[in-house]
Design brief:
- This protein has helices at 33-37, 82-88, 109-114, 124-134, 148-159, 182-186, 202-211, 242-256, and strands at residues 39-45, 51-57, 64-68, 91-96, 141-146, 164-170, 193-196, 219-221.
- It is an alpha/beta fold and 260 residues long.
- The protein has a single domain, classed as Rossmann fold.
- The protein has an eight-stranded mixed beta sheet, with helices on both faces.
- Helix 5 (148-159) links the parallel strand 5 (141-146) and strand 6 (164-170).
Length: 260
């Protein structure tokens, strides 16, 4: 099933790509060529008028649509290798630039256009714009967050659960002085949740996981070797632990989106 392209930045021909690179491929310079061909630029508009730039990675027959939200100081390019990996495994995904971000992995077009620094929670309208778009695509929706955005996906799903079938939160915590309260939002969820953090971050993530309803489908993942956020799945950032994380993620996704 192809996703609606009504909001895709104009004039791009359909991609006919070779196999996408592995999720652990180092994406720099020429090594990014295959990755860039595997995604489509997309432009959304947040409720307050801010333009939100994204990259859409499409699976041939998607089991679900995953919304990929980045960490502090980062951009949609945090998922430049993970997006193609997800597509290879049957999951379309949309990675967006949030206004609270930067050039850790590559240019953040939304933050650059916004023109001023913002608090992390101010990225919520950008994330909602992604969810609004996803709800039009007639696919199950999975929310995936990294660091501060891994916390914001809990109130996002609690407040607007339409179509959301699962969450993956990498290094969440109560980062906002109780506004919004993350554990309170987690307690309202009725879908499977994957919570990942390093051993050093368990004090931040464990209370959120503990607040989740006991549905038997939630997963608490603490890798043997980890780094902060979704970076724990990228070999360049986490050479000793990325494979373990990718296997755990794929197992969770397969259970959350069983074949019809």
């Amino acid at each position: 099933m192809r996703l609606s392209h009504a909001l895709i930045v104009g004039g791009l021909a359909a991609c006919s790509c070779q196999a996408s690179p592995r999720a652990d491929q180092d994406c720099n310079g020429a090594a990014c060529a295959e990755v860039s061909e595997a995604n489509r630029p997309i432009l959304l508009t947040a409720a307050d008028g801010v333009k939100v730039y994204g990259s859409l990675y499409e699976a041939a027959q998607p089991k679900a649509l995953i919304l990929l939200f980045h960490q502090a100081g980062s951009s949609k390019d945090e998922y430049a290798t993970l997006g193609p990996w997800l597509a290879q495994n049957g999951y379309s995904s949309l990675a967006i630039d949030q206004r609270a971000g930067g050039a850790l992995y590559g240019l953040n077009q939304t933050a650059k256009a916004f023109g001023r620094e913002v608090r992390y929670r101010e990225a919520r309208p950008d994330m909602q714009a992604g969810l609004d778009w996803a709800q039009q695509q007639k696919l199950p929706i999975i929310l995936w967050g990294s660091s501060y955005s891994s916390s914001l996906i809990f109130p996002l799903a609690a407040d607007d659960p339409r179509g959301v079938v699962a969450l993956l939160a990498f290094s969440p915590g109560e980062y906002f002085d109780g506004d919004p309260p993350i554990a309170t939002a987690a307690a309202k969820l009725a879908v499977p949740v994957f919570v990942a953090s390093t051993k050093q971050e368990t004090g931040d993530a464990d209370p959120i996981f503990a607040a989740l309803p006991k549905n038997g489908a939630n997963v608490r993942f603490v890798p043997d070797h980890g780094v902060h956020g979704s970076s724990m799945l990228i070999t360049k950032k986490n050479p000793e632990g990325a494979d373990q994380g990718l296997q755990a993620v794929l197992a969770f996704l397969r259970k959350a989106t069983p074949a019809n």
